[in-house]
Amino acid sequence: MARAYHLKSILFKENSKQQVDTAIIYYNKAIGLLADGTANELLSSVYRELSTVYTFRNDFPKALKYMEVGKDSSDLTLYYSKKANLFMTMGELDSSYLYLHKCINDPRLYTKLSVYDKLYRIERIKQNAHKALEYVDTLLALNDSVIAHTIPDKVIDIQKKYNEEKLRSEKAILQVNYEKQKSRTLQTSFIIVVLLFLGTYIYIYSYFKKKKLQQRMLQQKNELLLLNQKIQQWNQQVKLNQKKIHQLEQEKKQIEADLRIVSKEKELISHEKDEELTLYRKQENEISIQKSKYEELCFVEFKRLFLATAISRKIPAFGVDRVVTDILSPRSQEQLMNVMDEIACNFASRLYILLQESTEKTCLCCLIRLQVKPRYIMVLCNLSKEAYYKQCQRMAETLIGKGSASGLKDYLNTF
Q: Which fold has domain 2-156?
């Protein structure tokens, strides 16, 4: 037991110097001395200290393992507190928060103070200002209770100043030791890194050089194998090509014979088509002449029929020059549309539907069909020159899909 306590005191010193590997050796010796189970509390304490050492090494699975082994069922608050500290070190704040809440109801004042301090730090890391302020208020109240219970009122200020000076001096000593140790560590680390870098570079260079040589030899071997395979394939291909050439020559002779036959047939067909085309053109000319005569006769008849109507006296149709001063009245427009229906196969009625039942537009188209000159149409329809041409363009877009006055005239002549 005395040796176990002595080892434990050495362990505390080693922990303060962060010599973790040495500490683990001493702890294992302590566990070996206490393995007979005669000092369960001390053994649990050693397991807990060993868990702390592994926490320093960031070996969290082993730290959790020894913490579970060193669990004291008579003081679960201590177990929960240490487990919360471990999870907090691991960065698992939610798990730490859960175990800290299991310690809140502990009656010990210092335990509560430690728990609320850790809860405050967790909420501050999470940036939860509201909860952090709640824990700060509780923490300040507990701190006041600790001071009130442990220090008389008259000595509180002196004790505070003493604690502050003590903390400053300890901090300064630790800072100096840390800077010295840091400087030595940096120098040693730099030398080790340089040596490792050089050794690694030499090893990698040698490895890759050897690897490259092996790859080159393997590549050359593979290339030779591929060349042999290609030569065999080329020989086979040459034989196939020779057979194919012979076959193509036979096909060529057959095609030439077929082409001679086709050429003769083509000449015969071409001669027949030329004769048919000549006949067709002759018939087309005859039809065109007959069509012209028919259209001329139709136009003469159309002109005769219109001039026989009463409305023809008001309209200078078919290019006649005559003074026109009267505007077509609605009744005259209706008479004009009826006359055009009678002499031109419902000309006006069909246009009336296409022009969205517009009497004015229909009469304007009838006048254009009767070959009335534009200046007379403007008088009869009471339109300015600009309005007349705009109206013609709109009707052309409606009827033939493009705003062309000449196109409208051609369309109406064949409508």
A: 1.25.40
Query: Which residue has tokens 């254009």?
Result: 368
pLDDT tens digit string along 381-406? 888 888 888 888 888 888 878 777 77
- Please tell me what DSSP assigns to residue 355: T
- Using CA atoms of 254, 260, 262, 264 in order, give the dihedral in degrees to the nearest 10: -160
**CA 395 – CA 356 distance, rounded (Å):** 11
Can you give the pLDDT at residue 293?
Answer: 66
Nearest to 338 by CA among 316, 371, 305: 305
Collapsing DSSP to helix, strand or coil, 409 comes out as helix
Give the torsion sign (CA, 212, 215, 221, 222): negative
pLDDT digits (tens, 9 = 90+) for 315-340: 887 777 777 767 878 888 788 888 88
Indicate the domain borders of the chain: 2-156, 310-413
Q: Sign (positive/negative) of CA torsion 161, 164, 166, 168?
A: negative
Q: Closest Cα to residue 389, out of 378, 401, 376?
A: 378
Helix (H) or strand (E) holding 300: helix 156-307
Does pTM surpass 0.70?
no
